[in-house]
TrEMBL record:
It comes from Thalassobacillus devorans. It is found in: Cytoplasm. Heteromultimer composed of HisG and HisZ subunits. Its main location: cytoplasm. Catalyzes the condensation of ATP and 5-phosphoribose 1-diphosphate to form N'-(5'-phosphoribosyl)-ATP (PR-ATP). Has a crucial role in the pathway because the rate of histidine biosynthesis seems to be controlled primarily by regulation of HisG enzymatic activity. This is ATP phosphoribosyltransferase. The gene is hisG. It holds the Pfam family HisG. NCBIfam families: hisG. CDD domains: PBP2_HisGs.
């Protein structure tokens, strides 16, 4: 019996679009799974196993080879810089990472504080701008930080812009556009190349992107 091809699927906001893409590519395995509490799903007829992972953890499962393939936001890939192959831009869950803050507040010259869930992306960006900053790491509701004087700026995801607007914040700079990507474990890529190539080819046809 061959070992199943294991896919780490992100739970949460990417899930539905990712499951729909998989369905269009011929892998209709995930209908009604969002409501389920089961975390590992077996599909022996297709020789597939699906792991339902937190979006930030998908890359970890794929890097360690516990999943052969995964779907992860480019934001997570940029922040974590792991040893995985990024093979396809799926184009789903589009958003971008931006610098934002209270309006009309020039950035202080002396170590401005930047609150973010993306310390690496933020540090890389400000280093390129020649700015010395202090990172304030937060896990969510980042927009609170400038409102209460904890930070001068935030670096966070913007999608509709509604969260910034409703909290009286403005965008200062766009850092990078984000979509979800298909990632592959480098060893799996060699050992299971036939199954992986087949899945990536199907998905690339659906999304109309070249497989790199
Ligand atoms: N408005 C948005 N806010 C955050 N992430 C978004 C948004 N739009 C698209 N995304 C994408 O969705 C991914 C995050 O999904 P989700 O919010 O489910 O995860 P999470 O932030 O880890 O979850 P949680 O809020 O449970 O910690 C990001 O990595 C990003 O690529
Ligand atoms: O531009 P918008 O469409 O308003 O989306 C952006 C918001 O969505 C995300 O937060 P999320 O809902 O994941 O909550 P969090 O702050 O707990 O991460 C992100 O961190 C922004 O706060």
């Amino acid at each position: 019996m061959r070992k199943p091809l294991t896919i780490a699927m992100p739970k949460g906001r990417i899930f539905e679009e990712a499951a729909e893409l998989m369905k269009q590519a011929g892998y209709d395995l995930l209908s009604n799974q969002e409501e389920s509490r089961k975390l590992i799903l077996e599909f022996p007829e297709q020789n597939l196993r699906i792991m339902m992972a937190k979006p930030m953890d998908v890359v970890t499962y794929v890097e360690y080879g516990t999943a052969d393939i995964g779907i992860a936001g480019k934001d997570v890939l940029l922040e974590q810089d792991r040893d995985v192959y990024e093979v396809l831009d799926l184009g789903i869950s589009p958003c971008y990472i931006a610098v934002a803050g209270l309006p009309n507040q020039p950035l202080s010259k002396i170590a401005p504080k930047i609150a973010t869930k993306y310390p690496k992306v933020a540090s890389d960006y400000f280093r390129e701008q020649g700015e010395q900053i202090e990172i304030i790491p937060l896990n969510g509701s980042i927009e609170i930080a400038p409102l209460i004087g904890l930070a001068d700026r935030i670096v966070d995801i913007v999608s509709t812009g509604r969260t910034l607007k409703e909290n009286g914040l403005v965008e200062y700079e766009k850092i990078v556009g984000i979509t979800s990507r298909l990632i592959v474990n480098p060893v799996s890529y060699r050992l299971k190349s036939k199954e992986i190539d087949e899945m990536v080819n199907q998905l690339s046809e659906v999304v109309g992107e070249d497989y790199v």
